TrEMBL record:
The gene is argC. Its main location: cytoplasm. Its EC number is 1.2.1.38. It comes from Phytobacter palmae. The keyword Glycoprotein does not apply. Belongs to the NAGSA dehydrogenase family. Type 2 subfamily. Pathway: Amino-acid biosynthesis; L-arginine biosynthesis; N(2)-acetyl-L-ornithine from L-glutamate: step 3/4. Residues 3-104 form the Semialdehyde dehydrogenase NAD-binding domain. This is N-acetyl-gamma-glutamyl-phosphate reductase. Catalyzes the NADPH-dependent reduction of N-acetyl-5-glutamyl phosphate to yield N-acetyl-L-glutamate 5-semialdehyde. Pfam families: Semialdhyde_dh, Semialdhyde_dhC_1. It catalyses: N-acetyl-L-glutamate 5-semialdehyde + phosphate + NADP(+) = N-acetyl-L-glutamyl 5-phosphate + NADPH + H(+).
Length: 307
């Protein structure tokens, strides 16, 4: 039996993880009473007496919680962005490479991927690694998430008393210094940071992320068919990531960002317009699933051999 403590279980991601683990016979969920959750001493006791601690906290609080763990047998899965590019932490995207699951299994410190980076890295790393996409390509990444991606503040804005005044669509990160950019660049194998344009839509959850490519800027052998084959081969054995059949612009249909809500799945697509020399890479997944709680549970399952 594995003892799991979710530090920050009342947050959006923590609640989702709790729901996914509740009722499992191979896990015991440890918890503090509501009145004691801010007691630092009691939290430290829980963090050091569990087998696996899952941190669902703001970045600074996650760093503090990780530092509180003195028991060398306690393994940590951090769902925040505090440790995603920190040396000594294993990146918790099992589909990154064939040996990434083994790295996660052997690690004591796992950092969950960000929601947007999950889609961006999932699309870009196989292509950069295969030499089809130059590492210095001037990339633009556009992503729209359900408002739950903004946490409690955004949820209150859209579901609270002033919900009627909430915008149907809002672009943010206009300072072009979004915290996900270093993560994307590092794990996608990019030598220059991408231009990242995030937005929230007026729906609760689900992400559609897209990356436009110009054929003339790619390597000579990077045809639409070669790119699709590369992605298909990379994810051939994946349980959760699927590559959709290749589609030309004339046959393209609308993309529904909510179609995978409630799952840990991600679907990758490639749309092409040969006459214009343009390609469009897309990723659809649940920002609360594969983009957060689903990924944490997937990593937990790797740690305890339940995968």
């Amino acid at each position: 039996m594995t003892n799991v403590f979710i530090d920050g279980e009342q947050g959006t991601t923590g609640l989702q993880i709790h729901d996914r683990l509740r009722g499992r016979s191979d896990i015991t969920l440890m918890a503090l009473p509501v009145s004691q959750r801010k007691d630092r001493r009691l939290r430290a006791e829980m963090l050091n007496s569990c087998d696996i601690a899952i941190l669902c906290l703001p970045d600074e609080a996650a760093r503090e919680a990780a530092a509180m763990v003195k028991n060398p047998r306690v393994r940590i899965i951090d769902a925040s962005s505090a440790h995603r590019v920190t040396p000594g932490w294993t990146y918790g995207f099992p589909e990154l490479s064939a040996d990434q699951p083994d790295r996660i299994r052997a690690s004591m410190r796992i950092t969950n991927p960000g929601c947007y980076p999950t889609g961006a890295i999932g699309l870009l790393f196989p292509l950069v690694n295969a030499g089809l996409l130059p590492a210095d390509y001037p990339l633009s990444i556009h992503a729209v998430s359900g408002y739950s991606g903004g946490g409690r503040v955004a949820i209150e804005q859209y579901e609270g008393e002033q919900a009627d005044a909430a915008p149907a669509f809002q672009v943010y990160g206009l300072g072009l210094r979004h915290k996900h950019v270093p993560e994307i660049a590092r794990y996608a194998g990019l030598s220059v940071p991408p231009l990242f344009m995030p937005a929230y839509g007026g729906y609760r959850q689900g992400i559609v992320l897209s990356v436009p490519l110009q054929q003339r800027l790619l390597t000579k052998n990077a045809s639409a068919s070669a790119i699709h084959a590369c992605l298909t081969e990379h994810y051939y054995h994946s349980q959760y990531v699927r590559v959709l059949p290749q589609v030309t612009a004339d046959d393209a249909e609308r993309i529904n960002p909510e179609r995978l809500n409630g799952t840990n799945d991600m679907e990758l697509g490639l749309f092409s317009s040969p006459e214009n020399g343009q390609l469009l890479l897309t990723a659809v997944f649940d920002n609360l699933g594969k983009g957060a709680s689903g990924a944490a549970v997937q990593n937990l399952n790797l740690l305890i051999g339940a995968d």
